[in-house]
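Late entry, written up from scratch paper. The run itself happened at the end of the previous shift, but nothing got recorded in the book at the time, so transcribing now.
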Amino acid sequence: MTTTVLVLVETINEYLPIIESNDFHVILAPTPAERAQAIKAHGGQIKAVLTRGPLGLYAEEIAALPLLEIICVIGAGYEHVDLQAASNRGIVVTNGAGVNAPSVADHAMALLLSLVRGIPQTDAAVRHGEWPKVMRPSLGGKQLGILGLGAVGLEIAKRAALGFGMQVSYHNRQPRDDVDYIYCSTAVELAHTSDFLILATPGGPGTRHLIDRHALDALGPNGYLVNIGRGSVVVTADLVAALEQRRIGGAALDVFDDEPKVPDALKRLSNTVLTSHVAGLSPEAAHDTVQRVADNLLEYFAGRPVLTPVALPPPEK
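Output as recorded:
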């Protein structure tokens, strides 16, 4: 019997045959209106949902899907998936942690280079007939701080250390015993030791607003911030103020609090580089993340353990 999968992700159409070829029926609903309509029209037959962390799946939607058995999240973050509602129903949740890490790490380094070397500004100037000669810092030998040394953070560290000869420090919930990088016990300590600070941690309550005024002041006027993690990790008002007052050198952001809305204050600044949450998007990453979803679905519906389960809270009594 064919299993119906509701797909809420908007960037993987080309790779959906990977799922469909395994006898899953896909309902594609990438916009809010299509999503609501699909749940209303087909809620009684949907057994699996494919989503992203920022898109999530909410308690009221889970309640409207009486046959739902598994939620598959592309990427590592699952901040807007209601894990408690899933746990209460015995619904399995999986993610794609690490699958798109090389793509995200590439983008993080591209943002860092663009920001520190002033690539967008110089490009714009040349296109306007100007020929600026601006002194910009180099990356070689500098101190790189990574907030969140998971799969993505490790890929960034490898590129920074081996490609640019940078000294790498990091902050995690716990120090890792499998790396030689320097561990910092707090985000503020990490910022203080860093020339460049890259945020690679997932979203959620545990990482919310780790980067505030104190951390930004610790980074200092010659420091640069890159965020390819989640917008919620940063207090946006504090970041805007630090950028406006030049208390940090600049910021490159691929993630924001209320995507796709980006604060006008960030757009107006000359010391920012902004991209549209595309760090994890590459043909290789898209293929591999969809393959991971297909593999998890196949394992689950065959009665075997899924490959990448997300830990759920205990069911509410």
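The chain has two domains: 3-99+283-301, 101-274.
(Scratch paper discarded after transcription.)
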